[in-house]
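Q: Please design a sequence for this.
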């Protein structure tokens, strides 16, 4: 799962969340939001789970909305997926190609 800021025509910004299967590269779910928030991250993960089932692991970056565990905080997304038995993992800091 990763999120990318995108500028729309007219200069308005949005954030596109992409949930992708790391093995097959299948696009599982997408979600567009006004910002990179925990609620938007939860929305895309819930869409993906509804259509493809619960994954074994969820790889994200270390962003506050995705997985702030390296900052000593358990975020809403991590709490949610952990309750489903999913292991939340992160890429190494400053290694964006992992995502």
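A: Design:
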């Amino acid at each position: 799962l990763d999120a990318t800021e995108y500028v729309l025509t007219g200069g308005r910004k949005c954030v596109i969340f992409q949930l992708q299967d790391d093995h097959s590269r299948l696009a599982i779910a997408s979600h567009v939001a006004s910002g990179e928030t925990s609620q938007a991250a939860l929305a895309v993960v819930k869409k993906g789970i509804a259509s493809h089932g619960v994954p074994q692991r969820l790889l994200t970056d270390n962003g506050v909305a995705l997985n702030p565990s390296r900052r000593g905080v358990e975020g809403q997304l991590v709490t949610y997926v952990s309750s489903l038995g999913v292991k939340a993992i992160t890429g190494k800091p400053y290694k964006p190609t992992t995502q």
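Q: Thanks. Anything notable?
A: Residues 38-52 form the longest helix (15 residues). The mean pLDDT is 91.
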